[in-house]
Amino acid sequence: MLRKIILSVLGIAFLVGAFIYANYLIDSKHKPKPIVPKVVKTVIVDTVKNGIVPVVISANGNLSSKQRVELYSEVQGIFKTGSKLFKPGQKFTKGETLIRLDASEYYASVQSAKSDLYNSIAAIMPDLRLDFTEVYPKWQAYLNSFDINKTTPKLPEISGEKENYFITGRGIVSAYYNVKNLEQRLTKYRIAAPFTGILTEALVTEGTLIRSGQKLGEFIDPSVYEMEVAISKSYADILKEGENVNLTSLDKTKVYQGVVSRVNGSIDATTQTITVYIEVKHQDLKEGMYLEANLNAEKIENAIEIDRNLLLDSEEIYVVNDSLLDVIPVKPAHFSSETVVLKKVPNGTVILKKPVPGAYAGMHVKGVKSSVSTNDAIQ
Question: Where does the record place the Multidrug resistance protein MdtA-like barrel-sandwich hybrid domain (predicted)?
């Protein structure tokens, strides 16, 4: 009997324990889950204010001297040593001798031709005194002024038909022009600097034999340079001579002021571009230097300019509405390497100023107008 009572008590205790444990399990299922805090990303924004946006075209090119002379020899002779060495980097002033060739042999033939002309005129003087007394004084004065060591003076003006036949028949005129031709060629044995500049290329050295038609070097004016750039044909009617241009070096450390000096009147049929020539002056510039030009092409009204990374492939941009990101359609008007000009963006619209990684429409954000101060937050 006692055994039955003990078993009954244990059974009842087991049932009570099971009931309590079951209630505990039920209560644990309804325990509230921990609240995950909502992450709100801070973004840099800007308020749209449409205005006039100048379109700046970027183009690259090398500098070349505006005044450049390729030196060629028209005669043959030995290159004589001058007061300055004929070497690259050597400076010469205007009129100074660049190259002088040995012309002693040719000079002798010129002097011989002058002597023959003088003798021919002297031989007709007795006949002029007898038959052409009225023209004799001017021919006598010509002989008196004739100096074989100087440039041959111009023949006296022939006034009459008889005088013309007489002078021409004696071969005076042909002898005179033969002498002038020889004198002109004699000047080619000396090449003078056409302007003040610097020698950039020297292909010959002193003492060598120079042949006719041989290239000797290059001579440039280092004070004025030009840069040739190719621009899209769509700007052919916009670009004008006299436009100011900013030229920057490759490392972006120096800026030079240039001006559009010429615009080609034809369009390249292959590339559909137009060639623009930019003139620039500065003491730091050198031949062949590579620069980037920024040309002011046109002005777009009622537009804004933003970073190209902010424009989506669907031609939309992100805006901030009530702390949520949204997208609106836009109309790109001009693309540059880093920015894009947009139209049809309403004034007062709050847009992103910098790209946000992982952005999507409906994303919770807090916009600030400055990356330093957060006092201007847009909630």
Answer: 68-216
| Token code pair at residue 320 | 């901030």
Report the chain (379 residues): mean pLDDT per 10 consecutive residues: 66 68 61 59 86 83 92 94 90 94 92 93 88 87 90 88 87 93 93 94 92 94 92 77 86 88 87 89 90 82 87 87 86 82 86 85 79 35
3-class SS of residue 288: coil
Whose CA is closest to 113, among 158, 166, 172?
A: 172
228: which strand partners? 277
CB atoms within 10 A of CB 186: 17
Dig out the tokens for 243 from the structure: 């436009």
CB contact set of 117 (below 8 Å; sequence gap of 6+): 152, 172, 175, 176, 178, 179
| Residue 163 amino acid letter | E
If DSSP codes are grouped into helix, strand and coil, which group holds residue 314?
Answer: coil
Strand ranges (DSSP E) for 241-338? 244-249, 255-267, 273-280, 290-307, 316-321, 324-329, 331-335
Q: Is 377:41 a contact under the CB 8 Å cutoff?
A: no
Residue of 260, 278, 271 lying closest to 234 (CA atoms): 271
Beta strand 290-307 pairing with 68-72: unpaired
In total, the chain counts a number of residues equal to 379
Would you give the end-to-end CA distance of the chain in angstroms?
A: 80
Helix (H, G, I), strand (E, B) or coil at 303: strand
Q: Is the distance from CB of 238 to CB of 217 less than 8 angstroms?
A: no
